Each structure stands twice: as C-alpha cells, then as structure tokens.
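Check out one such.
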Amino acid sequence: MGDIEFHIDSEYVDNRLSLITQPNKGFESQETKLKELFHNIIDVFESKTKLFRFDNPHEIFHWKKFWPLFKIIHNVFDERNLLNRLQFTDNNCDFKFKSNYWKYKGFPYMLGFPIRENQVENLIDRKINKHFLCLNRRPKFFREDIVRFLVESGIDKKSYYSFGVDGESNNHPLFHVLDKSLENIYPSMAKDTITLYEDNVFCYIVTEAIVDNEPTTGIEELDNEIYLNNNLYCHITEKTTRAIVGGIPFILVSSAGSIKKLHEFGFKTFGDWWDESYDSIISYEERIDKIKKVITQISEMSISQCDEMYKEMIPTLKHNQMKYQEMNKIFQTFDGMDMCYESNFPNQSQYFELFSNLRKRIEPLL
C-alpha cells in the first residue's frame, strides 16, 4: 500500500509493500483475507503513525481497476473508526468525490517536481536558434502523430526533437535521438530524455502523458460517487514543469482542459500570442489539428521574430517560475513525508520482517 524507508548510518534501505492496481480476476473474492491483512497493519502501526497514506504523486490511479481495493481499505478503516487518518493522493487534479467519506485528493504535484536542482533560468540572455523542442521518450500514438507531422511538414528542420529513445523503439521509422549528456541537468534521473537544448529554443511542444478524454470511469457505482465532467483525468507531469522551469513558452498536447487547470493553479500561458482554443476541444482529432495549425503558424516566424516575441513573454515566464517555486515547496514537503527515520522505528529488523511477511501474504491475493 506504500513505501517505508529506514535510515541506517546515513544510508537508506527500503522494504516495500506494494499493492498492484490491476488485480487478477476474482480479486473481490479475496475481500475477507485482504481485510484481515489491513486490520493487521493497523494493529501494528496505529500507535506509531498519525496517518496511513497511499501515495502516487507521480502518476494517477486507474480507477476502473483500483476501485475494489480502494473500497476495501476504506471499509477496514471505517470499522476501526480511523477514516480521519487515511489518505489517498495522486497526480490527477480533475477527479473529485462528492462525499468526504472517501479520503482522496488529487493534486498536480508534478508541477513542483525538482528540475535542474530548482535553478530559475536567466531569461534575458537566451540565444534562440530553433523554433521548437519536442521530447518523446516513449512512443504513444499522439506523440507519433506530432513527430510525423513535424517530419512530413519539414518543421523538424526547425526543431530539436526526440522520439522512441526508451531503449525498445530503435527500429521505429521515426526514431530520433538527441544529446545523451544528461547528468549536468538532471543527475538523479539521467536516463530520462532531457537534452542540452532547452536554452536555445523558442517554444516547447509538450507531449503530455494523456490526451484522451474520459467522461466516465466505466463503473456505474463509482460514477455515482464522483463529479462527472468531460474529462476525469488531468495528468500534468514533469514534461510541462520542465518548460516552466526552463522559461520556455509551450504548446500543451494533452487532454482537453489542461491549460484551464494550469490557470486555476495560478500559472499563465500564451493565449495573448497564439490561439490556445485547442484546449477546450473535446475531440482528439479536432484538437490535434488545431495544435498543428498553431505549430505551423509559429514555424513561419523568423528567428528574430521569435526573439522579439520571447522578450514580450518574459514577465509571463518569470511569473510561472515563481509559481513553480511555490509548487516545489509543496512537493518537497509531500516528498519528505515518505521518510521514516530510525528514531521513529528503533526496532528496525522487526519492521523489515513485518513488511516481508505482508508481501508474501498479499501477493497471492492479487
């Protein structure tokens, strides 16, 4: 259900109890055993922790498969009169329950994800030599759509872009790799697709994690418990954060309403300089066509025109960097709660053994 880490002689050793969110067929038939297991967890930790947390700050819950387990855990904590000490969190800022019985809160934590060691960029001295940056490590249909458009339109010549550099897609016809010298920008995740080109582009084409709009979970019971809208999943990730920290204007290839969500959290975008009405288009095909028109419009500008427009955008870009600093403090506070130090758990071997046994008990049930 989460992680516990022990601090020993300045070194972290973790022992993870991880419940997969894609249970096997017949999962709900194991409800009695799962309830027993979670009662055991409460028995051990009730006097040692103020909060039982299930955290997924980098990703989102896939509710169609997660809902049965979510209910079971709530039932157990309700039986123990401990619902006020239960918390579920993920990186979805568009999913909301009607009742406060369900202890869930989605929040765009990744907008505070540490990038470039949180260094705010010098925006005045930027040397623009390309129109676009577009990074695509994992091939997905919408990323392929965008990259194919760049290549077939010739806009790739005005872009730094990557595609399929996940180590498994080298034979893809659109495969393209950029600089692999990543350590000086993002040492903790050097395998990620981060380049040395951010400082020399005008606009970031951010191909986010999700573009499809989902107006229903597919579970009638769950739909009755939440506020339904045109899209239940708004998953803004470090891809957008990278543009904000780097002081780069961006086009957001994401699910409809993502730009609107950025505005709700205090960020500014670029509707004063190009058409952002694509954000309100529900249909993927129509939205992506609108985005391509914006990309084409920007590509037709000269580098000197990009440079002049960029200077106009600097107040907006600086505002976003300051908002990022606020979000980063929230992320750091949240992230720091994951650590359970030695003073909290003096008998560490006892807890290693406990979590190992829990894993052995729960894995056959899933």
